[in-house]
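In full, the data:

***
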Amino acid sequence: MKELLIIICAYLIGSIPSALIISRKFFGIDIRDYGSGNMGATNTFRVLGSKYGTIVMICDILKGASAVALYNFLPFYLHSTNELERTNLMIGLGLAAVVGHIFPIWASFKGGKGVATLFGMLIAIQPIIAIACVAVFIIVLYLTRFVSLSSILAGLMLPVSVLWIWNEHEVLYRIFALLVALLIIVTHQKNISRLLRGVESRIPILKYRDRRKNKNK
């Protein structure tokens, strides 16, 4: 019973509509009425700029990490020597937050794609692998300024890290990594289509770098 209540709390944390709150408070708009219509960091970068996009991304990452941290309220798991039980609960809590972000009860069940929340969850469960994924995200973002492409490649880095680089033996963790990569690809179908057609929007960062390149040409 306690586990169920904690999982519900994780879902409610994930449902906190960071992008919607910021768009309404500072701009008087519903972020879902603009850009791609998603309530996530990528669309916030696109519509409101890098400052507010970064704030939303950090908030969404914290949602995933905070949800996983709820296992601390269950002393049995906190002090258990059974690593499998603890890992299973942490994954369950993190996924509940991701579901909350994608289908937020506080925002009519119309949310974002859950990538930043997934990263926050991963940071809390396996920080080393999370760092590898974040590094891929930052490098691709710096080179391309496509948040969608950065998210997709960072998501694909997860199963690569779990299955091959660190060779995690826990079956559930392997399945989780593969499902996360699949989820990111499925939720980014429209972005993939726009990338292939060359019409995907770049986020408004590193503009001065691009201007210098254009001047040198």
